[in-house]
């Protein structure tokens, strides 16, 4: 391995173990998403180490006994910088401990939401909590028999909970608005998949099928964990090449799931198909192949029913979130946008979906008292970041954090690990 000197300041080198990142070490590590990493600001201590990977080097940046908000802050600042390949990892063997911490915080956040936001449906939040816990296990190289069993159990909970579709739709969109840090894309899509499947009047689906579509929803973006995180989390506009790389998540997803299946994970063929097809559009304008229409009508170039459902769930869920390149939308607005390009969706699925969202908006718009933002913020002592409705968790956190960091800029120039990394990388 031909490595330059670690682009890490001396103080860090003296304090931490810094070693070249070998393939062998890579196999033993698992990446942590920005959203989950930020959850750690809500805990006092952990019993595992947090590593950062930077330009081929592995740094044990936070040992359990040294865990502090200051060190988390340093890592966070480095994550915010657009340049450089930088990621946070833990040992694979510590994943259960990490999950336990994250699950505990998520449950707390959901309880606060239940207490302070009117008309939230508890059953929906319980199911969501479970889905989100399973969704975080779907990572590159980590989809094994146990993960599939957990995903399946969460999908079956949607069915056994007999959710009220309108209440569930309202609760999900309100949750995204009130606490964007809770947004978990695959969990949201899985739930929407089940809600849509339940309402298919022209083609009623059995409970078993609804469960399977939800399972496909949880796995649909499995390939995203194969796209470099600096592209996925890039705050600015993507180049054409970067966008092409993101589009490949459909192919990566299929391959990742196929690979897991070969190693013995009981992945359903349809989950593999949906991971590959969920960006195909009814008109044929999608990717990766430009498949068109229904598989039932054309077995060679048609799109599977479950992929057509997942695609609607995926687009609607994404529209509710604010991204760097687009505004967040209220449910009614999101629906309007989808209706403008309704050729992209199978009318047999899309029509009842439109009716359901319209009914949900009508039912709750008069009932919904203004969100009790003030008491909510007070209760959470500012730990929950209140931003414009529907930003992605990472964006919301980034913005809130950048604001507070601006005030500390002078101090940061001296101490910020990311500055050091940037200088060395230049
Ligand atoms: Fe996708
Ligand atoms: Fe997606």
In short:
This protein has 426 residues and is mainly alpha-helical.
Gross CATH architecture of the largest domain: Orthogonal Bundle
Query: What is the count of helical runs?
Result: 21
Question: How many domains in all?
Answer: 2
Rounded Rg: 22 Å
Summed over residues and divided by their number, the pLDDT gives a mean of 83
Give the H and E element order.
HEHEHEEHEHHHHHHHHHHHHHHHHH
- State the CATH class of the largest domain: Mainly Alpha
Question: What's the main sheet like?
Answer: 5 strands, antiparallel
Q: DSSP strand (E) fraction?
A: 5-15%
Low-confidence stretches: 370-393, 407-426
CATH topology-level name of the largest domain: Hypothetical protein af1432
Descriptors for this entry?
mainly alpha, 21 helices, 5-stranded antiparallel sheet, binds fe (ii) ion, 426 residues, disordered C terminus, Hypothetical protein af1432
Provide an overview of this structure.
This protein is mainly alpha-helical and 426 residues long. The chain folds into 2 domains: 10-94 and 394-425, no CATH class; 119-368, Orthogonal Bundle (Hypothetical protein af1432). It has 21 helices and 5 strands. It has helices at residues 10-15, 23-28, 34-39, 69-80, 95-116, 122-135, 145-160, 165-178, 185-198, 207-219, 229-232, 240-247, 249-262, 269-277, 305-320, 331-340, 347-365, 373-379, 393-407, 409-415, 417-425; strands at 18-20, 29-31, 50-54, 57-62, 86-91. The protein has a 5-stranded antiparallel sheet with strand order 1-4-3-5-2. Strand 3 (50-54) and strand 4 form a beta hairpin. Residues 185, 189, 220-221, 314 line the site of one fe (ii) ion (FE2).
């Amino acid at each position: 391995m031909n490595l330059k000197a670690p682009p890490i300041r001396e103080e860090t080198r003296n304090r931490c173990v810094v070693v070249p990142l070998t393939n062998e070490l890579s196999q033993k590590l698992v990446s942590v998403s920005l959203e989950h990493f930020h959850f750690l600001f809500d805990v006092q201590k952990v019993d595992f180490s947090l590593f950062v990977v930077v330009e081929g080097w592995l740094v044990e940046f936070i040992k359990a006994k040294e865990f502090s908000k200051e060190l988390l802050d340093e890592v966070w600042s480095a994550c915010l910088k657009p340049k450089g390949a930088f990621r946070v990892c833990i040992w694979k063997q510590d994943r259960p401990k990490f999950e336990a911490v994250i699950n505990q915080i998520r449950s707390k956040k959901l309880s606060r939401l239940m207490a302070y936001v009117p008309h939230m449906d508890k059953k929906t939040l319980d199911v969501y909590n479970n889905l989100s816990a399973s969704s975080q296990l779907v990572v590159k190289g980590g989809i094994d028999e146990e993960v599939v069993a957990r995903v399946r159990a969460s999908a079956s909970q949607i069915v056994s909970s007999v959710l009220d579709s309108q209440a569930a739709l309202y609760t999900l969109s309100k949750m995204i608005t009130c606490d964007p840090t809770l947004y978990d894309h695959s969990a949201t899509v899985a739930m929407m998949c089940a809600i849509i499947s339940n309402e298919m009047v022209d083609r009623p689906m059995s409970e078993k099928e609804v469960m399977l579509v939800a399972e496909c929803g949880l796995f649909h973006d499995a390939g995203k964990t194969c796209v470099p995180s600096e592209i996925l989390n890039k705050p600015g506009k993507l180049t054409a090449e970067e966008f092409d790389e993101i589009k490949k998540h459909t192919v990566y997803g299929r391959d990742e799931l196929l690979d897991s299946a070969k190693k013995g994970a009981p992945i359903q063929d349809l989950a593999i198909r949906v991971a590959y097809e969920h960006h195909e559009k009814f008109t044929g304008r999608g990717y990766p192949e430009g498949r068109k229409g229904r598989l039932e009508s054309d077995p060679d170039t048609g799109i599977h029913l479950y992929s057509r459902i997942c695609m609607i769930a995926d687009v609607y869920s994404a529209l509710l979130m604010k991204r760097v390149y687009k505004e967040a939308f209220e449910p009614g607005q999101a629906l309007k946008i989808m209706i403008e390009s309704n050729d992209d969706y199978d009318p047999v699925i899309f029509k009842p979906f439109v009716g359901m969202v319209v009914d949900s908006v009508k039912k709750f718009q008069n009932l919904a008292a203004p969100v009790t933002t003030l008491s909510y913020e007070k209760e959470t002592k500012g730990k929950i970041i209140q931003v414009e409705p529907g930003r992605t968790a990472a964006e919301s956190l980034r913005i809130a954090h950048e604001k507070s960091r601006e005030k500390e800029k002078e101090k940061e120039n001296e101490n910020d690990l990311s500055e050091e990394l940037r200088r060395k990388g230049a």
